[in-house]
Amino acid sequence: MPSGTLYLLRLLHIVLGVFWVGAVTFIAFFLVPSLRAVGPAGGAVMEQLIARRMPLWLMGAAILTVLSGFGLYWHDSAGFSSSTWLASGPARTFGFGAVMAVIAVVVGMAVNSPAASRLGALGAGIKAAGRPPSPDELAEIQRLQQRLARASVLQAVLLLLAAAAMAVARYT
How far from 18 is each of 12, 39, 160, CA to CA, in Å? Predict the structure, then answer.
């Protein structure tokens, strides 16, 4: 693989990975708890984040981070054919980090994205009706917020483990 391609893959992997891990960690430990604490006023903030396409930015960063990492791993392992490298400490540590990141992507797509979309649709419907949420709507909002909060924390922990593995892999 040409060195320019390796530089680009490494640049994408590190910069987008930093954005992804930092954003998810901020969301999980600061934004979601704050939005839940302020109640219905948090809906306006969520609307703005969705309008600014935050979920798409996060998913794009996640996918490009994983794909560029896959490319780097492929290069380092000589196309997955170097059994010596694949059995090494760095390969196992990079692999562990990759598995954590892939699980985080799955959690984001399977849990966070649908819960956030449903919350947005529910909030928009309530806003359009110009009334406070019904007891059933309020219960669903709280259920979705709880699900999103738990999944976000799980995602943040997975991504912090992935980032830690990537940071130390060369020394293992």
Answer: 10, 30, 10
Is the pLDDT at 36 greater than 90, yes or no? no
H or E stretch covering 141: helix 135-168
Tens of pLDDT along 148-165? 999 999 999 999 999 999
Cα 120 to the chain's mean position, in Å?
A: 18
Helix axes 54-76, 89-107, angle to 10 degrees: 160
Residue type, 167: A
pTM of the model: 0.89
Helix (H, G, I), strand (E, B) or coil at 52: coil
CB atoms near residue 75 (< 10 Å)? 14
Query: What's the half-sphere exposure (Cβ side, CA atoms, 13 Å) at 35?
Result: 24
What's the DSSP call for residue 2?
Answer: -
Share the mean pLDDT of the chain: 92
Q: Is 81 helix (H, G, I), strand (E, B) or coil?
A: coil
- pLDDT by residue (tens digit) across 81-122? 999 999 999 999 999 999 999 999 999 999 988 988 888 888
